[in-house]
Design a protein that fits this description.
Layout: E1 7-11, H1 16-27, E2 31-35, H2 45-52, E3 57-60, H3 69-72, H4 74-95, E4 98-104, H5 127-142, E5 145-151, E6 154-155, H6 162-172, E7 175-179, E8 183-184, E9 187-188, H7 189-201, E10 208-211, E11 218-219, H8 220-231, E12 236-240, H9 260-263, H10 274-282
Parallel strand pairs: 1-2, 1-3, 3-4, 4-5, 5-10, 6-9, 7-12
Antiparallel strand pairs: 8-11
Helix pairs in contact: 1-7, 2-4, 4-5, 8-10
This protein binds NADP nicotinamide-adenine-dinucleotide phosphate.
NADP nicotinamide-adenine-dinucleotide phosphate (NAP) binds at residues 12, 14-18, 36-37, 40-43, 61-65, 80, 102, 104-105, 132, 151-154, 159, 161.
Length: 284
Amino acid sequence: MTKKAGQIVLLGGRGMLGTDLDRALQQAGFGVEVFDLPDFDITDAGQLRAAVGRSDVIINCAAYTNVDGAEADAESAYDVNAAAVGRLGDLAKANDSYVVHISTDFVFDGRKSGPYVEQDAPNPLGAYGRTKYQGEQLLAAGGCRHCIIRVQWTYGAAGANFVSKMIELSKTRNQLKVIDDQIGSPTATTEVVGVICELLSRDNPPEGLYHFAAAGQVSRYDQARFIFDKLGVDIDIKPCKTSDYASAAARPLNSRFNCEKIQRLLSAPIRDWQGPLEEFLECL
Ligand SMILES: NC(=O)c1ccc[n+]([C@@H]2O[C@H](COP(=O)([O-])OP(=O)(O)OC[C@H]3O[C@@H](n4cnc5c(N)ncnc54)[C@H](OP(=O)(O)O)[C@@H]3O)[C@@H](O)[C@H]2O)c1
């Protein structure tokens, strides 16, 4: 890239991350064209070609994100998370477009004791992570200019997530069991979009693979305690283990990212997870 991005095509722009990204990009002065279900299906090659057109910059937030559903419907997950991303890469290569693609901590098995760096070998535990990793590989193999940003434990106003789930459950229960053996960094979509906007504003937006998450780490149990504490909700929370819950897909116990690579590109230090979460709760 030798010039600032002008018109941006945003795929999956009505999802949790895409909605906040659309707003932030427009506020930053970018022109944004949003495509999403039901009127746009990324798995339809003709629709994808028409959407992408000859745009300079494409951001892909579209994904099959139902982690448990993907186990029973791996084919659909593959179509959206992998095959369509490969086609997107081919179109971008042909048009010399730059692609920002969002991926996930679920490419890892979570067995590493420390935070994951970009060079760590993926080993997905289930179909969602496997198809997301295949998407990364197909995009890279196509040879277009691209940046893959893996995010984890995201929450935002425009979608269901751990934070909204905890709040919903607390409305009907006075006792909750929450897993204390999954560790990660709760990351506000607003922080992710801040990073994407900053990267796109550079004269030369970066290429390659990057990890981004809020700083610090916490278990789901301690995150839930933080949420209810800040909201003043009186609820009895008990810790439990991932193995206590039957779910179709296995989840990584360690989702922590080492974000030093992306930090070097950013003007400000990545914020600890607590601040953005507190701000999010204050806006509810
Ligand atoms: N949420 C997390 O904790 C998390 C963690 C790590 C990584 N990520 C990644 O972050 C990115 C954004 O996800 P999100 O959290 O914003 O989830 P999301 O709210 O589910 O957003 C995904 C969007 O893609 C759309 N979509 C699904 N199938 C499509 C298709 N065939 N054609 C076009 N659009 C389609 C969805 O539409 P419908 O809603 O109508 O299905 C939705 O608007 C994804 O790449 C995801 O893998 C998320």
